[in-house]
Design goal:
The protein is mostly helical. It is built from 5 helices and 2 strands.
Length: 124
Amino acid sequence: MASEVQELSHVLKELAEIKTLLSVVIEQKTGEKAPLPPADKEFLTVDEAAAFIGAKKSYIYHLTHQKLIPFSKPGGNRVLIKKSDLLDWVEANRIKSQGEIQKEVAELVAGSRRRAGRGRRRLS
């Protein structure tokens, strides 16, 4: 559990660094400051959500229109997306690396061998 918390903390620090780098790249390409949200902001606008994950605004609108990510519309017009919901969506669409897949297969094979060994009867 402690290692998972440390890993999550590391990922969040890396994400903050990526956001900063992304902001610099956007500013260099467009001459405009990217609307990156403050780190402690819970709900993001469409602009902020797009900048947060490095996508276009139209893609965020597509995700909300298709109801692929949860969102709120307080007052009926402005779309707000909870940052944790956006991160959950990103994580849910994660593709495992070849190493992770191989590790899972090895664990499954090892587990099936242990179960198969328990089911055998010894003849005396």
